[in-house]
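User: My collaborator sent over this chain with a note saying "see what the structure looks like." That's all I know about it. Can you take a look?
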Amino acid sequence: MTQFHCITTLENSDNGQPVWIDSQQSLFWVDHGNQKLYQYHEPSQEVTEYVLDAPILSLSPRVNNGFIATLEDGIGFYDIQTRQVKYISKPEPFSTNKETIAGVTDNYGNYWSFTHPKDPSGKPGNLYHLSAKMDMKRVIGDGWNCTAPPAFSKDGSMLYQSSGVTRYIYATKLNEQRQPVETYNLCRISKAEGYPHGLCVDNEDFLWVCHRNAGLISRFNKHGDCIEKIKIAAPGIKYCTFGGSNLDQLFIVTSGSQSLKQSRKNSQYADSIISFKPGVTGLHAHRFAG
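Assistant: Without extra context I'll predict from the sequence alone. Here is the result:
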C-alpha cells in the first residue's frame, strides 16, 4: 500500500507546477490565484510563504541564481531575495486574446512556455522557447490546446504535452536545433480516468501523468503503455515532480473537491502538497542558461 505524506494543505488555493531546487533542499511552488510563493524546506520540514508583487504563474531555476518566471502576459526573471520581477519578453506581443501559462526548462537550458486563449472558444495557443541569448521562437502552433507545461525525455530528444481537451498525450521528436521533427499521439486517457494534466519523467525515462477529476497518477513507457496506476484520495491531481535529497520522492499538487457529495475519505488530500516514494528516482531540475 502506498504511503503518502501530506506536506501542507492550502484551502481555496490555485497551486501550480512545483520545482525541486537541490542547492536549497527545497520544493518551491506558486499559488497564482492568491499571488503567493511557497517554499518547503525538507530538512526542517518547514513551509515558508512569500507574498508576490507580480502575477507569476510558475517558476523555474536559473544558472545565474534566482528564477525565470512565467507571467500572465509574458516571461521575466524573479529574485526571491528582493522579490522583484524583471520583465523579459511577451511571446505574442500583438495578441490580446492569449495569455502565457506555466513553463519549464529543457536539458539544454532553453525555457519553454505555452500561450493559451483567454476565451475558451478562442483559437488554441502556441508553444515557444526562449534561448539563453534571449531569442524567443515559436516552436509549435496551429491547433495545440495544452494547459500544463511540457516534460522532456531523459536525453532531451522528446517533448511530451498533455491536452485536457482531447485527453491525448502528445510526443514530439526534436532535432539538435530544438525544432520538432515529428509529433504523434503517445496515448489517450479514457473518460473514466479524467484527463491528463501535469507531467514529469523519472530516471528510467518513464512518463508520470497526473489525472484531473480522477484521483489518479499513472506511469507510461515510451511506447505509450501504462505500466502503473496509483489512486490518491483527492479529486484533482494537478502537477508532479521528483525531489528530496535522493530524488526518490514524487511530490504531487492536488486541487479541491468539485462535489459537496464527495466523502471526506475520497478528499483526504484535496488542496494539498503530498509526496510518496514510488520506488524510482527522478531527474534534477534543468536550469535556464540565461
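A starting point for your reply to your collaborator: The mean pLDDT is 87.
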